Structures are given as structure tokens and as C-alpha cells.
Amino acid sequence: MRDARRKGLITISDSATAGDGRDPAGIYFGTNSGSVFASRDEGDSWDEIARHLPTVLAVEVLDCG
Which domain holds residue 21? Predict the structure, then answer.
């Protein structure tokens, strides 16, 4: 995922990123191409959890636990 961002394959804004404050930290970000990705292991691995959205301008995390 980091390589994809560095190579310009995905574009995100700072407001489209969020963390959940857990240990290990969950990290979430939305892309200009309408996808939302999540990592539950501090960025070691990523899953696409939503797609086919409009440009994602902001991401917020709600802790229900």
C-alpha cells in the first residue's frame, strides 16, 4: 500500500485518514477513486472495505466497543 501511494497509484487527502486508537492501531483511509481501505495491524496489511463511492473527502472512526 505504501508503494502504491508513493508511485501515485492512489491519492488520498489528510482529512480522509483516521485511526481508532486501539492497540494495535487500526488505520483507515479513503481515496479519490472512491475506495476505503482498513488496516487492523498498524499498516502491515490492508483490506479494501468499500468501493465504487464518490471521491472520499473525509474518514471518521466510531469506536462501538
Answer: 2-50
Is 46:54 a contact under the CB 8 Å cutoff? no
Q: How far apart are the first and last CA of the chain?
A: 27
pLDDT in tens, 28-47: 999 888 999 999 999 889 99
Tell me how far apart the alpha carbons of residues 62 and 40 are, in angstroms, rounded to a whole number. Answer: 14
Residue 37: inside a domain: yes
Pairing mode, strands 47-50 and 17-19: unpaired
pLDDT, tens digit (0-9, with 9 covering 90-100), for 5-26: 555 556 767 778 899 988 998 9
- CA–CA distance, 6 with 54 (Å, rounded to integer): 22
Q: Are 18 and 4 in contact (CB under 8 A)?
A: no
Per the confidence metrics, is the pTM higher than 0.70?
A: yes
